[in-house]
Amino acid sequence: MGGIAAIAKQLGHRVSGCDANVYPPMSTQLERLGIELNQGYLVEHLADEPDLVIIGNAMSRGNPLVEYVLERNINYTSGPQWLLENVLKDRWVLAVSGTHGKTTTSSMLTWILEYAGMKPGFLIGGVPQNFDCSARLGDAPFFVIEADEYDTAFFDKRSKFVHYRPRTLVINNLEFDHADIFSDISDIQRQFHHLVRMVPSNGLIIHPQSEQAITDTLEQGCWTPIEQSVTEVEPLAGWHAEKLVADGSEFVVRFKGQEQGIVKWHLIGDFNIDNALMAIAAARHAGVPTKVAIEALAEFVNTKRRLELRGEVAGIKVFDDFAHHPTAISKTLAALRANVGNDKRVIAVLEPRSNTMKSGVHKDTLAQSLQQADLVFVYQGEQVQWSVDALIDDCQQPCIVSDNLPQFIEQVVQATQPDDTIVVMSNGGFGGIHQKLLTQLANKSLASHND
């Protein structure tokens, strides 16, 4: 919604907005653009009656502003519908979808197009650090959008991405998620099939060959050429990467068996290699030579909150990561393990905060996803609907659970040793835990030095 507000401002509209919690980095980004931010859902925020209210999918009936809009018959729409009608309908849309990696892949793709001089428009659900904003109108024709399968609005229960009408479609992966709106994976596949139906025959769909759930979805009907990433080098098959360094910081890119170049970058993790192949393939469809895309990735800076190093104290690194699904958690920890090796410790600090996590849908697979960590800390938030204590027995390594955040942070700090790597995983602010950890680690180090 913040990105949509920024684009509306660029189109010349006077824009204001409100949210239950307004916090950085989006709040500072919007304030810099001259967009008025209001805390809470007070009807006074609409006293100067607007021409149009764009209602986000977090809003539901009973919300004071929603009720006010309906009662006064104020013109309203959803964010995706507004984007289609005002921005996307005349653009070459490159949409990045899938359960994991959408934000990172969208950021990579946008940066590749920017590096190639195409000045794309974009809307990304995070803060891409190669840019100073998460959304911009850009110059025609190209527009990159993070294409989410979550529903559109309380009055439109279709997935957001069916409004985007892409010509280039990336499907990174497809797993069960969003248990609050989908009953099973077939529900999600149905929405993806609606999206596939909209990609024109002169478009392109790109996906990993290994993702059976995607293959099954495409077999329901596909009228568009397909390119795939493959696990083995095949002369007639699609995109393939060969790691040159264990942590994924250097790898060879091949297309149909032919070497295209070597990516040497600042990122780690097999999942980021997968994201890179998708971005390279999508950019090639838009006219960017693969060689140029590889050059661009060497200068790519990952999106905030995607294995972002927040600080280092006495050799202890603190990373922030958005992982909130067992698959993402597992891949994040595997990347760090490959990076630090087996001689140093990885400490996982997890907040089960997504609606799916809080409901307990993934509780039986969570312990397995944490295997690469040497020590696990899990925060039992107030809205978590299952007892996180169960993880203490399920985890093969020591697991500490707490529902008291200050005490929780203190426990992490006390357990930490020099050269440890801490990764904090949550899709929320987690009470500012990252800076609190760094501050207390610095105090601990100072006290130790004075002793």
Automatic annotation (TrEMBL):
Reactions that this protein is recorded to catalyse: UDP-N-acetyl-alpha-D-muramate + L-alanyl-gamma-D-glutamyl-meso-2,6-diaminopimelate + ATP = UDP-N-acetyl-alpha-D-muramoyl-L-alanyl-gamma-D-glutamyl-meso-2,6-diaminopimelate + ADP + phosphate + H(+)
Q: Which residues form the Mur ligase N-terminal catalytic domain?
A: 1-84
* Key word Cell cycle present: yes
Which residues are recorded as binding ATP? G98, T99, H100, G101, K102, T103, T104
Recorded hits in InterPro entries, A to Z, give: Mpl (IPR005757), Mur-like_cat_sf (IPR036565), Mur_ligase_C (IPR004101), Mur_ligase_C_dom_sf (IPR036615), Mur_ligase_cen (IPR013221), Mur_ligase_N (IPR000713), MurCDEF_pg_biosynth (IPR050061)
Q: List UniProt keywords, sorted A-Z.
A: ATP-binding, Cell cycle, Cell division, Cell shape, Cell wall biogenesis/degradation, Ligase, Magnesium, Nucleotide-binding, Peptidoglycan synthesis
Q: Which cofactors, by name? A: Mg(2+)
Q: What is its EC number?
A: 6.3.2.45
The segment(s) forming the Mur ligase central domain are 96-283
* Residue ranges occupied by any Mur ligase C-terminal domain in the UniProt entry: 305-428
Q: In which pathway does it act?
A: Cell wall biogenesis; peptidoglycan recycling
What's the stated role of this polypeptide?
Reutilizes the intact tripeptide L-alanyl-gamma-D-glutamyl-meso-diaminopimelate by linking it to UDP-N-acetylmuramate.
Against HAMAP family, the record matches this protein to:
Mpl
Q: Which family does it belong to?
A: Belongs to the MurCDEF family. Mpl subfamily.
**Name of the protein:** UDP-N-acetylmuramate--L-alanyl-gamma-D-glutamyl-meso-2,6-diaminoheptandioate ligase
* UniProt source species: Thalassotalea insulae
What gene does this protein come from? mpl
